[in-house]
Design brief:
The chain has 115 residues and is mainly α. It folds into two domains: 62 residues; 51 residues. Helices cover 80% and strands 0% of the residues. The radius of gyration is 34 Å and the shape is rod-shaped. The termini are far apart. This is DUF2802 domain-containing protein.
Length: 115
């Protein structure tokens, strides 16, 4: 009887020691998932930056400024941006130091960009 108890005690100690040295698959899966999430977030961030650059380039190339107009394309972009933010043509004209007619002309010429 004593031999059986000692034998069971030794087997239990060996099994406990074995369980501590065994690798946990759940931790590996969690680490793999975290790595995958981080890489996906990085890719999404890069794609958003590229989309923003492409949208800006597209908006810049779509802005129409009449040839006989003396308005710089960068000012035209600012006028369109302010119009999209809800400023009135009069307020835009005062802010950009151009005439209200020029502001209305740029807004009218670029209606397809604004939609």
């Amino acid at each position: 009887m004593e031999i059986a108890i000692i034998g069971l005690l030794v087997v239990s100690i060996v099994l406990i020691a074995f369980s501590y040295f065994q690798r946990e698959p759940i931790k590996e899966v969690e680490q793999e998932l975290e790595t995958l999430q981080l890489s996906a977030m990085q890719e999404i961030y890069k794609l958003k930056k590229k989309m923003k650059v492409l949208e800006e380039e597209l908006l810049e190339t779509n802005i129409v400024v009449r040839k006989h107009s003396e308005i710089d394309p960068s000012i035209a972009r600012q006028i369109i941006s302010k119009h999209q933010n809800g400023m009135s043509p009069e307020a835009i004209a005062r802010a950009e130091h151009v005439s209200v007619e020029d502001v209305n002309m740029i807004i009218k010429d670029n209606e397809r960009v604004l939609v």
